[in-house]
Prior knowledge:
Number of strands: 5
Distance between the termini: 54 Å
Structural class: alpha+beta
Shape: globular
Oligomer: single chain
Helix content: 40-55%
Amino acid sequence: EPYPSYSFEFRRWAEVQGRPALHTEDAAVAEKIAASVLSHPHAASLLEQGEPEQSVCDNYAGADCEASVDWLHPERGIVVLNISYSIEPLAYQARSMGRELAFARAVLASATGEDVDVHVICVERCAPFRCGVCTFKTQALEKAQKQNAKDIACLLECRRTNTWRTGYEEIIPIDYIN
């Protein structure tokens, strides 16, 4: 019976290995997550080709920027893997990453001259290990990219003037009560 991953014995054993160690239970969960992703036809096809952990640097919206993505498919674009306890709010989880993914898409387009699609693979980290795939509509990405460009312009202005506004300098009127 292996020691629990939180035990002193496991930590001592892991240090001796000379590389990161994964507990048996954690490895079993990782294998179930991988099996779930690979058994989903759309998720599996997004990961059939491409390169993991890609970063791109370029000047976007007047600023030197760097963006990183989980996976870059040569034809289908950016792929992000999101692992959570439940994929029930699948679209919500994907939308919460929208601005960040629109930024990555814009920096990649600035560097390559090509606009790419953006996909999010969501998979559960516990039984039943469900998996789903979302893709962003171009209009949603373009809207987020416009807001990102405005935010970058604001950042550049703050740097230029050395004035760092918070957005809360004025009194905020409350016109409704929950």
